Amino acid sequence: MGNPISLGIDLGTSELKAILLDESGTVLTHAGVRLSISRPQAGWSEQNPEDWWQACLTALHQLRQQQPDAYARVRCIGLSGQMHGAVLLSHGDQVLRPAILWDDSRAMAQAQLLCHEHPGFADFTGSLPMAGLTAPKLLWLREHEPQIFNQISCVLSPKDYLRLRLTGERISDVSDAAGTLWLDVRKRDWFEPMLQATGLELKQMPRLVEGSAASADLSASAASLLALQQPVVVAGGGDNPVSAVGIGAIEAGQAFVTLGTSAAIVAITDRVAGNPASAVHSFCHALPQRWYTMGAMLAGASCLRWVTHLLGQINEQALLQLVQERVPIEQPVPAAIPLFLPYLAGERTPHNDPLLRGGFMNLAHDTTPAMLGYAVLEGVGFGLLDAMRAVQSAGAVVGQCSLVGGGARSNYWAQLLSNILDREICTLSGSELSACIGAAKLGFLAYGRGNDLPGRGMPVKERFVPAVAQQEMLQARYQKFRGLFAAAQALHD
Asked: Which of 160, 176, 184, 239 is catalytic?
């Protein structure tokens, strides 16, 4: 039979990834399938859940081709995925409409209504109502698509739709459920008053289990389709908490920075420690009796992608190389370099304003592409500093931080973040697969193996320590950055 293998699946916004992991924590092979986003109206963001399933089938087919022997030894499946999405199912488990995603801002008015009518709910849900979270989206549907709303039998998060296709069961975990705004994060169970406030009932919610617990076995039909036996499917979790398991961040006091399409500062806690007034989330971790406090940005490395295209650069690496050559990281930043507000998709922590938009200030005839590229890297860093200070205001500890996500590939950006945040930053080998690895680790726990895996970290690739000589200059630029917020907000008032 051979040693058991865990299959880890991470349903991201732009890509579905899958890995095969052995009991030593070694990734044997991985696969990825790109996903597209539909934006039928300004501020809308949707995906077809069937596309997720087809991407899952394709990725698993690739794994089977690459490592047939290991694939045949899959005994457990772990799931991770983008949070806050709304998948609406009929009584026959048919999808009623495209899923509304985390970065969709159509429900802003509904979020404000929930804040106004139920101000005390945030103490239970761990977060203020925000347009990107799930609950306001359902209130929007009730108002604007009542014919769809009235057919809803169940609301699932994105990765839980994959579980439905794998097992036939409507099940979620507490970490993903925390991102819906329908969970009492202390009790780790559904919070019925918020369900009622959005016109829903408890029976329309999936069954909840902890992220490391078994949820169901692979159905016979899915096992036949995927050429697997019937491995146990673990509950899994949302992408941020499962990434934390992937990199070994499971104890209070550990922290990390995610720098992908969006960005976040995440601090692990042993209690609920949120600050809703500053748009700081306190959500359930993917492991029992653990939580995490998070300050989230809606645009992270996507800002670099945007400015790369805007400037006509070949790719992001080419622009980063240009920045590194023209704006050396060890030298003071010239005063002529613009400031950048990274609010291309609005902002969450600490502003909670989905209509906020970004911009450059201090442009001149001699502004160069390298200057703009640097300004974007710095602006995202300043946004993360805003988020970190908000997280600290909730009582969470942020010390040394690991850096994960696509932005972690740039040593220049990692050093700049260390300088801005005044924290040691570590990049990790294999962190681009952290959510998949975390999902596979949880799979082993559900299978009754690998109890030591969740706390096992990834090898440190490089360490970056704050450059003392840069602190005064960066603090001065940060204060100017902060001073621009009121003007940016006034543009949509």
From this structure: 239
